[in-house]
C-alpha cells in the first residue's frame, strides 16, 4: 500500500544541473574515494566499495563541491574534503545498519548481512580515520573543526534517537533535535567548509551552513514520509521499515498527538511494545491519512526547503545558485 | 588453572614513578575527560563514564604526557592530546566489545551488556568525534596527522584480525602485523605527539614513536599470555576468553607450529571449528607448556621491551627517563 501525497512539483526539480556543473570535480572525488578505500586488508575495500558503489547520489560531497564553486574557490582542497564527507556518511551508514539490525540498504543486502556486524563496525571506523586523514592533508584547521564537531554531533543525534526510540510521547521539537544531529549536521558541515577553505567572509560561511542544515532537515522529513508510502520501492527501502522498527518519526508524532485514546493505544502497542499484526501497517497509514500527518510532514519539509533557498539568496545569480535551488526542489519532490 | 611463567622481575617494575611525576598533569587530563564526555543526551556520559571510570591505568594518555615532559614541552596542548588518546582507546574498547560479543570488560559487565550494542557503537563514535575536536583545538596539524593515521591503522589492524580469525595457519609475522595495528600503533602515536608539539628534532620524534611501538607490542604479547594463566583474574578477564573466542594469539601460533599432527588437529577443532569441551582449555595450556609457547611469548615480549628501552637511550638521564624504563619493566612483569 502506498499513499500519494498531493504536492505541486516544480518543473525544475532535478539534480541534473548540479551533476553537470560538478562533473569534472566529481570525477576527481570518485578517484580519491577509490584510492582511499584501498588497503592490503582486502576485506576493507570489499565492504567499503559494496556500499560506496551501490548507487547513492553522493549528494553530500556534491554540496561541498558546489559551495566551494559558489565561493569561487580556486585550490583543490575541496576534492579531499568532499571525499571525506562521503566517507563520514558511509561510516555512519555502516554503523547505522548494525544499530538498526538492517537487512537491506539501497535495495541490496546490507554489509552486516554479507560480512557481519564486526566488519561493518570496523570498516566504518577505518573510513572515519581515512576521512580525518584527508581533512588533515587539506590543512584547514577551521574545516577540521567544523567536520570533527559534526562527527561528534552526528553520533550524539543517533544516541538521542536511541534514547527516544519507541517513545510515542516524543514532541516535534525533540524529534527535530534528533534529525538536526543525525542527518542535517553533515549537510550543514559539508556546505560550510566550501566558503571556509575559500576564505570567504563569515556571513557567507553561515549562509552556506544554513543552506545545508535546512536542506538536511527537509531531506530527512521527506525520507520519513517515503517510509510510509510514495515511491520508496525505487529507493530500495521497504515501506514500513520505520514502523516495524518502532521508530518515532514526524508522521507518527503528528498522528499520535492528533489521535484519540483508542488510536494512541494502537501506536503504543505497535511502536512501544512492538506487537504488530499483519494489518497494522495499513491501519497506521490510515490514521496518518485521517490526521493529514503525511501531508503536514511534507508541509514542514517545504518550510525548511524554503529556508534553505532563502539562505542562498545572499549569493548573486549564477548557474550554480540555480542548480542548488533545483536540488532543494528535487529533495522535496522525492515524496511523490 | 593458571600457569606461572618463570621470569625474573626487576625490582623496579612499577608505574608508581610515572604516576608521581605526572600527577598534576593527569589531574587536568581527568578533568578534561570528564568535561568532554558531557552531553545533554544523558546516555552518553553514562556509557562513557562506565568505561572511563572503571579503573583502567590510563597508560596511553600518561605516555603522551611523559613524552611531552621528556621533550621539555612548555605549553598545555599535551593535556588535550592525552585526553584525545584516551578517548580513542575507549572508543576502540566499546567497538571491540561489540565485535567480540564480550560480556565482561575489566571485571564489570561490558557496556553492550548494559546498554546494548547500539549504544556501544554510537557512544564510541561520539568519543572519536570528541577526540578529533580536542586535537583540532590543540592546532598541531602534524599531531593531527599522526593521530588520524593511527585511527585508520587501528581499524585496519582489527579488520586484519577479523580476517585472520580462527586461522591456525597464521604466521608469527602475520600476527605481529595485526598487533602492531590494533594495539601498538596507538602507543606509538601517543608517544610521538609529545616531541611533535614541542617542536623537537625528527630524531626525537621517531625515538619516542619507537618507545611506544615496541612497548605496545610487548604489552599485547603479555596480554596474550595472561589469557592463558598468570594473574589475569585480577584484571577482570576470564582465563581462556581468547581460546573460547577462537582467537589466534602468539602462544597458539607457537604451540600449533611446534605441535604434531594430532595436536594440530586439536587446535583446528577447538579454534577453527569452535568445538570446545570442558577439558579442552586445560589441554591447550598443557600443549603450550609442553612446547614452551607461553615462556617464549614472554621472551618475545622481552625482546620488544628491550627495543623500547633502547629507543629511550637517545635522551639524557632524568627522573622521567627512569620512570619510563620502569614502566616497560612493569608491563613485562604483569605476566606473573
From TrEMBL, chains A, B:
Q: Which CDD domains match?
A: Trans_IPPS_HT
Per the record's keyword annotation, is Metal-binding included, yes or no? yes
The GO biological-process annotations, alphabetized, read as: isoprenoid biosynthetic process
Q: Which PROSITE patterns match?
A: POLYPRENYL_SYNTHASE_1, POLYPRENYL_SYNTHASE_2
Q: Which domain of life is it from?
A: Bacteria
A molecular function (GO) held by this record is:
metal ion binding
Which keywords annotate this record? Answer: Magnesium, Metal-binding, Transferase
Cofactor(s) it depends on: Mg(2+)
What are the TM regions of this chain, as residue ranges? none
Q: Which residues form a coiled coil?
A: none
Q: Which family does it belong to?
A: Belongs to the FPP/GGPP synthase family.
Name of this chain's protein: Polyprenyl synthetase family protein
> Which organism does this record belong to?
Bradyrhizobium septentrionale
Amino acid at each position: 500500500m502506498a499513499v500519494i501525497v498531493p504536492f505541486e512539483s516544480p518543473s525544475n526539480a532535478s539534480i541534473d544541473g548540479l551533476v553537470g556543473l560538478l562533473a569534472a570535480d566529481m570525477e576527481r572525488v570518485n578517484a580519491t574515494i577509490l584510492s582511499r578505500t584501498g588497503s592490503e586488508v582486502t576485506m576493507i575495500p570489499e565492504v567499503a566499495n559494496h556500499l560506496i558503489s551501490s548507487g547513492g547520489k553522493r549528494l553530500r560531497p556534491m554540496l561541498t563541491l558546489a559551495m566551494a564553486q559558489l565561493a569561487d574557490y580556486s585550490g583543490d582542497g575541496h576534492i579531499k574534503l568532499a571525499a571525506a564527507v562521503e566517507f563520514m556518511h558511509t561510516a555512519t551508514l555502516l554503523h547505522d545498519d548494525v544499530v538498526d539490525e538492517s537487512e537491506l540498504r539501497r535495495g541490496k543486502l546490507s554489509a552486516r548481512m554479507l560480512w557481519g556486524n564486526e566488519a561493518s563496525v570496523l570498516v566504518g571506523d577505518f573510513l572515519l580515520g581515512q576521512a580525518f586523514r584527508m581533512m588533515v592533508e587539506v590543512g584547514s584547521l577551521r574545516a577540521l573543526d567544523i567536520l570533527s564537531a559534526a562527527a561528534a554531533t552526528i553520533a550524539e543525534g543517533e544516541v538521542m534517537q536511541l534514547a527516544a526510540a519507541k517513545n510515542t510521547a516524543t514532541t516535534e521539537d525533540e524529534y527535530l533535535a534528533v534529525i538536526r544531529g543525525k542527518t542535517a549536521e553533515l549537510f550543514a558541515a559539508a556546505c560550510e567548509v566550501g566558503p571556509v577553505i575559500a576564505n570567504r567572509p563569515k556571513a557567507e560561511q553561515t549562509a552556506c551552513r544554513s543552506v545545508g542544515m535546512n536542506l538536511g532537515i527537509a531531506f530527512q522529513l521527506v525520507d520519513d514520509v517515503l517510509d510510509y508510502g510514495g515511491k520508496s520501492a525505487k529507493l530500495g527501502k521497504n515501506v514500513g521499515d520505520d514502523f516495524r522498527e518502532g521508530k518515532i518519526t514526524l508522521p507518527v508524532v503528528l498522528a499520535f498527538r492528533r489521535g484519540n485514546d483508542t488510536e494512541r493505544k494502537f501506536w503504543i502497542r505497535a511502536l512501544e511494545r512492538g506487537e504488530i499484526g499483519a494489518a497494522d501497517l495499513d491501519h497506521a497509514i490510515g490514521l496518518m491519512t485521517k490526521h493529514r500527518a503525511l501531508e503536514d510532514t511534507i508541509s514542514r519539509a517545504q518550510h525548511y526547503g524554503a529556508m534553505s533557498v532563502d539562505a542562498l539568496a545572499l549569493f548573486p545569480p549564477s548557474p550554480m545558485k540555480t542548480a542548488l535551488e533545483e536540488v532543494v526542489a528535487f529533495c522535496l519532490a522525492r515524496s511523490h
